[in-house]
Specification:
The chain is α/β, with parallel strands linked by helices. The protein has one domain: Collagenase (Catalytic Domain), CATH 3.40.390.30. The protein is built from five helices and four strands; from the N terminus they run βαβαββααα. The protein has a four-stranded mixed sheet, sandwiched between helices. Strand 3 and strand 4 form a beta hairpin. It is globular.
Amino acid sequence: MSVYYFSERGKSVPPIHRLIVRQWIREVIHSWGKELGNISYLFTDDEGILITNRQYLNHDYYTDIITFDTRENEGDNRIFGDIVISLDTVKSNAELFSSEYAEELHRVLIHGVLHLIGLDDHSSEEKEAMRKAENEALTLLKQLLKGTSLLRK
């Protein structure tokens, strides 16, 4: 099974290390006792994610990421999902939090995967657990990328 990347609304798929990112996602999923099914990322702009939020969730606001669990069988140990990411919001969040764009992008990539695994971020305790899991995953990614930059040139 694999990880797929798509884009819309004039956005391009960011220049990520696709093989390393797939390995990273697989390792994070395995660390939670799950298997990788198929995960699709759709990169869009703020208006694209607002349209998605309105159409599928009846929410009328911008966000950085929307995650859809596409498993057909709740008991399936494999992770399947569609993840929509606003690259505009990733960029503005990187500026807001004084972090590198690549790190914020990878944080959002794994944030969606962690939702598919079962983590949530509604309460303060859940947010804390999510941030801890994101940070651990980012540490693993940095180890996998040792000697290269976070984004492919």
